[in-house]
Q: What sequence folds into this?
């Protein structure tokens, strides 16, 4: 018995060591980004690397820890388009996240709780679209967008990503575990299908809605390829385009680059930590329903 307990403890210790190492690989680059955003390029490249920012590396004109953030916001050309690009990314990411949650939940609800001929074929067809790389449909999608005169507009950035096949799959799988007895009781009480969905089903899908919303927001917040085609003017560009242009300009230094990356990461950190409790709650609810 003692040998068994000892083996269990050793395995637990090994698991904890592995998790700590894995966490370090994830956290250290983020910590480096935050610390380096308050450093001058000389201090970042100095060996050995110091994790404490120091003013002695800054010039007399820029002897402040916030110099990099000023450069990041102004840009190397001093046009100051960073706030507008952040606003564009927020509008696009929030709009796509909201429409994806609503449309995917409606579609997933229909595929999970309504029996009709061809239901499985419809679901498999939706899933098959996940196998098509975006690069394969990018040019035809651009031609369609151009035909509808949506180039260099918010519509052109939002409409192609209003719903995703993965979102439909995620909502369907979650709603398959939703008790059908609640829906039958609501129908007996005289509620219509849309009222059942909005008043009973949708409010009880908070964990999966939060998860899908975060993933959809992140996909559009990090999206670079499509905005490169559609957003052509400086006032319509998104934050990934700003970062790419900032990195390509000759006067960019490592400290300002870290400041740009740090500022661009703040909305994702806020969104994740504000909704992170729903991940554990959603996993617990899903496992209990499976059991």
A:
């Amino acid at each position: 018995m003692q040998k068994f307990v000892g083996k269990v403890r050793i395995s637990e210790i090994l698991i904890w060591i592995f998790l700590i190492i894995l966490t370090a690989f994830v956290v250290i680059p983020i910590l480096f980004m935050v610390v380096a955003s308050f450093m001058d390029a000389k201090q970042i490249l100095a060996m050995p690397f110091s994790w404490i920012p120091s003013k002695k590396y800054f010039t007399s004109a820029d002897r402040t820890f916030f110099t990099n953030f000023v450069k990041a916001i102004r840009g190397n050309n001093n046009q100051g388009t960073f706030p507008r690009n952040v606003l564009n990314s927020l509008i696009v990411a929030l709009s796509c996240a909201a429409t994806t949650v609503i449309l995917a939940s409606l579609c997933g609800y229909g595929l999970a709780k309504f029996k009709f001929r061809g239901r499985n074929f419809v679901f498999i067809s939706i899933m098959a679209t996940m196998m098509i790389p975006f690069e394969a449909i990018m040019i035809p999608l651009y031609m369609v967008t151009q035909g509808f005169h949506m180039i260099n507009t918010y519509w052109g950035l939002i409409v192609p990503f209003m719903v995703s096949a993965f979102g439909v799959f995620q909502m369907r799988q979650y709603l398959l575990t939703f008790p059908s007895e609640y829906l039958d009781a609501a129908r007996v009480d005289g509620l219509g299908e849309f009222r059942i969905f909005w008043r009973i089903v949708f409010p009880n899908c908070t964990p999966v809605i939060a998860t899908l919303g975060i993933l959809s927001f992140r996909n559009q917040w990090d999206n670079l390829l499509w905005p490169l085609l559609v957003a052509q003017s400086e006032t319509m560009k998104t934050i990934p385009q700003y970062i790419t242009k900032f990195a390509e300009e000759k006067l960019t230094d490592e400290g300002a680059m870290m400041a740009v990356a740090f500022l661009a990461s703040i909305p994702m950190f806020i969104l994740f930590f504000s909704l992170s409790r729903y991940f554990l709650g959603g996993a617990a609810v899903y496992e209990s329903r499976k059991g």
User: Anything to note?
Assistant: The chain has two domains: 2-67, 82-290. Residues 283-291 have pLDDT under 50 and may be disordered.
